[in-house]
Amino acid sequence: MKSLVIDADRHTPDTLDAVYVEQHDIETRAGECRVAVTLAGICGTDLQILQGYAGFSGVPGHEFVGVVETAPDGDRHWIGKRVVGEINIGCGTCDWCRADTANHCPTRTVLGIVGRAGAFASHLSLPAGNFHIVPDTLDDEAAVLVEPTAAACEILTQVDIGPRARVGVVGDGRMALLVGQVLRTTGADVTLFGKHDWKLQVARDLGLDAKRSADDVPTSTFDVTVDVTGRPAGLSRAMELVRPRGTVVMKSTFHGETPITLWPAIVDEVTLVGSRCGPFADAIALLTGGQVHIGPLLAGTYPLEEFGTAFNAARSELKVLLQP
Fold first, then answer.
1. Whole-model pTM?
2. Nearest Cα to 19, choosing from 125, 144, 120?
3. Which of 11, 63, 198, 278 could form a disulfide with 147 if both were Cys (CB 3.0 to 4.6 A apart)?
4. Could you tell me the CATH superfamily of domain 149-274?
């Protein structure tokens, strides 16, 4: 067994020092299942963790597809199943958990982010209740993107977006391209804004309307805007583009302070919505149904031992995968 490890006590933010592959036994927690990881995806949150986000120490990674190897009594029917997994593990007894919102449990652990070893490893541990079976029609590369696609689907559980809505997605990275595709399924008029010509071309290849962020677009134009940049400037742009009484969705994890002028939100009565995680079943349905395409996003797969090359690629490319 092997894992990619970040030693937070020795780690210098935004570097790969004190990041290493370790051969060791991987603990399967009591009452949980052991999963052999087939593929794992590098996302923006993982890059933020390298910059010091959440003070994480241990094994990062939360996007994965794998096969269940062991399970406790009562869950043994999962053994041999190809699965993806929801990343929040709550206490199971608090009001949040009883309301099926373990992602807000005050004592939760989060795979590869808070208090729990993650998916950049040959094996991981999760409760069976977090699993979703991957349909045979969905290949491993697409299955890895169930988690971020679910995060995009979460927007539709929070904001009413109808077929006549005008939606602006600020950002042209991997998450923005998923968000654009998911929101398009409502029939809304979706425009994606970015600053990288080649990424904007990927968006157009996916059938999205895409413009450079600096293009002359009237302010206060969109009913809903979504910031998927992970940068303060992106949130400011989303605020500029939304109409009075519109909604701005914040769909980025950003390590550090985010200076922003909020008085326009007050004057224009703009609703600000934080958004993370999301419904896996909806994501699987969109991916298997061909409404969300991931092929143009895939930029390469690297062995776990080549994590340095993989992380560097993920900073400039779209979706980079690790193979333990």
1. 0.95
2. 120
3. 63
4. NAD(P)-binding Rossmann-like Domain (3.40.50.720)
Residue 200 burial (CB count, 10 A): 19
In Å, what is the CA distance from 311 to each residue of 2, 83, 87, 323? Answer: 18, 25, 21, 13
The predicted-structure confidence for 190-244, as pLDDT tens digits, reads as follows 999 999 999 999 999 999 999 998 777 888 899 999 999 988 899 999 999 999 9
Q: Which residues of 205-223 are buried (b: 16+ CB within 10 A; e: fewer)?
A: ebebebbebeeebeeeebb
First to last CA, the chain: 9
230: Cβ contacts below 8 Å, ≥ 6 apart: 44, 48, 171, 173, 252, 253, 254
73 Cβ contact partners less than 8 Å away, ≥ 6 residues apart: none
Query: 43: burial class by Cβ within 10 Å (0-12, 13-18, 19+)?
Result: buried
Answer for the pair 206, 298: CB distance below 8 angstroms, yes or no: no
One DSSP character per residue, 56-89 reads --B----EEEEEEEE--TT-GGGTT-EEEE-SEE
Which candidate, 18, 36, 241, places its Cα nearest to that of 119? 36
Where are the chain's structural domains? 2-145+294-323, 149-274
User: What single-letter DSSP state applies at residue 8?
Assistant: T
Residue-wise burial string across 269-300, b where 16 or more C-beta atoms lie within 10 A, e elsewhere: ebebeebebbbbebbbebbbeeebbbeebbbe
Angle at 317 between CA 313 and CA 319, to 5 degrees: 95
Q: Count each helix (H run) and each strand (E run) in the chain, helices first.
A: 10, 17
